[in-house]
Each structure stands twice: as C-alpha cells, then as structure tokens.
Specification:
Helices cover 0% and strands 61% of the residues. The protein contains no helices and 32 strands. The strands form 8 sheets. A 5-stranded mixed beta sheet has the order 25-26-27-28-32, with no helix packed on it. Strand 9 and strand 10 form a beta hairpin. The chain is globular and about 60 Å long.
C-alpha cells in the first residue's frame, strides 16, 4: 500500500485492521488494503493507543484528544491541561496524564460513557507512563523526579475507587519509561536499568539487566509481552524474551543485528532487523521470514499477515513461510 509520499507517523492494529496515523489524518485499512475510513485531525504531535476496536488519539504536548472506532469519532474533548501520555483500556475507558493546577502532574480516567471516574494528582513528580487493567478496575502510573541531582522513579497501582495507591514501588537512580498490564493483577515495569514483573503488591520476577540492558517492550491486546535486551549493551546483538499474560517466560531468542521493532499478536512474534523480518511462534520456532528494504521502520503482526512500514508505504507478508515476493 503506497501512501503517495505522505509520511506515516505511527501504525498499529485495531481488531484485525491496520491503523495509520499521519500528519493530518488517521486511516484504517483492512487486510486487503481497502480503506475503511480516513478521518482528519489537527494535532501537532498525534499519538495513538488502541485496544479492542477503539483508538485513543491525543495531541502530545497539546490539550486535545479523541476516541474513535475504525469508522467514526465517538467523542472528542479539549482540556485545560497539557497532555503528557495516555492509554486505551480494553473495557473502553481511557487514562490521560496531564499537567495540573497546584501539582506537577495528574492522572484522569474516563469510562466508555465519557464520564470522569478517577482523578489523582501527583504533587512533585512528572507522570511518564500509565495503563489500565483489562477489567478496568486497576490503574498504574510511573512517575519521575529529581532529588539531590539524582533521578528516581516510582510506580503506583490504584484501585478504581480509591485515590490512595494499593501498592507502590520506588526505584533510585532509575528512569522508568513504561508500565503495562499483562493481566488484571500483573504489571510489566521497564526502565533504563530496571525490568520486572509485579503481581499484586509484590515483585514476582526481576529480569537481570546488569549485563544485558533493556531496549524495547511490546505487549499485545491479548497480553503477550515481547522484551528486547541489548546483549552486553551492544547495538547489534539482541536478546528477545517473550512472556505470557501470567508473566511466565515462553522463550528466549538471540538475534544478530540491529532490532528496529518487535510485535506480537499472542500467536506469532515478529522481529524487524536492518534487512529482514523474522517470525516466530510462541514456542520460539521460526515459522516465517522475509527480506525487507533498509528503510523499513516498524513491523506489525496480525494472525496470518505481517505488515512492515517505511516512511510512506506499507508492505504485507505472510506470517508463515519464506516470502519471496512482496505483497503490497
């Protein structure tokens, strides 16, 4: 699918359809590249979070956001505060981290009826990441601050009906960049020198990152996680670790070469390197591969189809088998 020179800012999936975010539009394509919708936006820095057929689009650094289906805008709002980050929940709720009057930052959660159901203000720290559990009953945030010249992070987990956290974790000299739920009680925490899985109110597993440094994390709608580690902090030797929704490791695979992007749909795991895409099943067996152009930026796997996008085009491959021809 050729975008006729129009830049793709980001791409993702909503159900089995492909979502493309561009400078002024959001396009949704089906697996045959048929356009299901093209909806305009006026955001300077559009960022997308999608889950279970709904798409949250917000203007990072701006004040506007909207929630849409694959074919229409469901609702949109303009806030008084600056949006830092956001997350789309499986139950249709959304979480937004913003600036706040009288505090450093604030988390607000709206349910699927657009009603504000949770507000928490963080007095001293900046909210970096947030997420919503599958059942919509738990919210997680990571915050970052500076004390005596050193960076620190905290992770808070909240019950929907209480503004006091049910669990909290502190990380000295660490910058936590991502918190994402694997299941209703299991949270994946990723930072520059931290990688761990929290279950309930305690750490269930710590990934050793003393030698191999965290690089990327992707979690699918059905809660399979793909973690990329840089082996001995190398840019060209990577380790892929895949976990199920309970936080149990499914397999580990070493990759020689730069890893640009990873994706999983819970059935397959796709790894994009400089010049090829490798596709594995959840037992760690390679089931598909394809040579790609060096301008490829990101990979998205969705059942039997694997998509690779560059600046202005999308290429489709079969997830299983050796792809000798590129499908557009």
């Amino acid at each position: 699918y050729n975008m006729n020179g129009i830049k793709i800012n980001s791409a993702g999936m909503t159900s089995s359809d492909l979502v493309l975010v561009q400078d002024d539009t959001v396009k949704v394509l089906d697996s045959t590249a048929k356009e299901l919708s093209t909806i305009n936006h006026k955001y300077d820095h559009p960022v997308m979070s999608s889950n279970s057929g709904r798409i949250l689009l917000y203007d990072e650094g701006g004040t506007e956001f909207r929630v849409q289906s694959k074919t229409r805008i469901l609702y949109e709002k303009e806030l008084k505060d600056i949006i830092f980050t956001g997350a789309m929940g499986k139950d249709g709720s959304i979480a937004l981290a913003t600036s706040a009057k009288g505090a450093e930052s604030m988390l607000t959660v709206y349910d699927d009826k657009e009603d504000e159901v949770f507000v928490w203000k963080c007095a001293k720290e900046h909210i970096v990441s947030c997420d919503i559990s599958d059942n919509g009953k738990l919210f997680a945030v990571s915050v970052m601050g500076v004390e005596n010249g050193s960076v620190y992070s905290k992770v808070y987990i909240f019950n929907k009906n209480k503004t006091e956290p049910k669990a909290s974790f502190e990380y000295k000299d660490s910058a936590i960049s991502s918190v994402q739920f694997l299941s209703n009680e299991t949270l994946f925490v990723l930072g520059n020198n931290v990688c761990e899985i929290i279950k309930g109110d305690e750490v269930k597993e710590k990934v050793d990152v003393s030698v191999n440094t965290p690089s990327k994390l992707h979690i699918s709608d059905n809660n399979t996680a793909v973690l990329v580690l840089s082996k001995y902090s190398s840019t060209t030797k990577k380790i892929i670790k895949v976990y199920n929704k309970s936080g149990a490791e499914l397999f580990t695979q070493e990759i020689d070469g730069l890893v640009k992007s990873v994706s999983t749909d819970g059935r397959y795991v796709a790894v994009l390197t400089d010049d090829n895409v490798q596709i594995y099943n959840t037992r760690g067996e390679m089931v598909g591969s394809a040579d790609v152009n060096t301008d490829a930026e990101e990979v998205i796997v969705s059942s039997r189809n694997t998509y690779v996008y560059s600046v202005d085009k999308i290429q489709k491959y079969s997830s299983v088998g050796d792809n000798t021809e590129v499908k557009k």
